[in-house]
């Protein structure tokens, strides 16, 4: 599309947008002037669906009226509440329902999966990740390695961009996997790098990891609900993600887990076990000897947090109603492309500001990371003061994420105006 830097053009795109009504389904915080803020921080915390409060209120009523019987009675028995989320979750990540379960929080699930899929031997013990991954992933891997009696400095191999570059080249990732060969036990990467916004080639990385004899998994915190995923078809071994960013399920919202179907009937696979992961047909017999449920559900430990799962169900319904990832992705590419177009028109040099997120739409989601070389914090504080809610990452990056469910092209135009006013003073 040929973009134009005018308010009329932005409003024309909004008028043509088939998803334009979904903005009204979310609660937008006010700016200092009392108007809706320009919320570009869905990559950190998505907005509240208007249906979320009623969804939790229904469960409060069930708790009030049914108490413990709420596990088995009412319209939404808690015993099987996680199954209510299964189909929509599977569609978001490109999985079969048996391959997904909603439970716990992200880093907890990452640990649980690494117990199963990082099983080092004397010779095959290395784990590959991207340098500068989100700290939780780094800490999880460090401690998992130490639990095996290994030295993180020797076992963890980090991928770094080439000198002068900010993102990883796929060919370099694949070459490193091949180089590690028989020493590589597990590959664990983000689906999207939180800092740069780069989308990794999950299918190619998975193929290369399997060719080397390694297990391959992904932290999809910034990918789930942001980009189309096909975890089953890509043959990914395992993955996990949070629900509070692009899935709009509230602060600390429940996490999702994917375990490929080929592991569904391997009860002998090492894992940490809990009662809720036990075969639900036999669970209440309270027998010794763990017998996991089939598929990803067999990694559950405890009964689900129903209040947060209720919010998640309400949020998933918004994604479903919008037409799922194909429809959201189409709008996302346009929104992000328009923001990129407006930033590139500011006339700033790379010594002042540069976009470190890939320019290729296939290699990014709806986030642009702006590297501001001088007075970046001042720019961020100015954006916040005028009601543009973005995200600051040390030492000098501002992340802006136009989310297709609730951001508009006029939002993007207004952010471009604010950045243009700042650029004119440089």
From TrEMBL:
Residue positions where N6-(pyridoxal phosphate)lysine is found in the record: 245
Superkingdom in the source lineage: Bacteria
UniProt keyword annotations, A-Z: Hydrolase, Pyridine nucleotide biosynthesis, Pyridoxal phosphate
One Pfam family this sequence matches: KYNU_C
Residues where pyridoxal 5'-phosphate binds: 106-107, 134-137, 219, 222, 244, 275, 303
Signal peptide: none
Enzyme Commission (EC) number: 3.7.1.3
Any one GO cellular component localisation term in the record: cytoplasm
Cofactor(s) essential for the protein: pyridoxal 5'-phosphate
Reactions listed under catalytic activity: L-kynurenine + H2O = anthranilate + L-alanine + H(+); 3-hydroxy-L-kynurenine + H2O = 3-hydroxyanthranilate + L-alanine + H(+)
Transmembrane stretches, start-end: none
A Gene Ontology biological process term: quinolinate biosynthetic process
Pathway: Amino-acid degradation; L-kynurenine degradation; L-alanine and anthranilate from L-kynurenine: step 1/1; Cofactor biosynthesis; NAD(+) biosynthesis; quinolinate from L-kynurenine: step 2/3
Function summary: Catalyzes the cleavage of L-kynurenine (L-Kyn) and L-3-hydroxykynurenine (L-3OHKyn) into anthranilic acid (AA) and 3-hydroxyanthranilic acid (3-OHAA), respectively.
Protein family membership: Belongs to the kynureninase family.
Name used for this protein in its record: Kynureninase
Protein species of origin: Hymenobacter perfusus
Gene: kynU
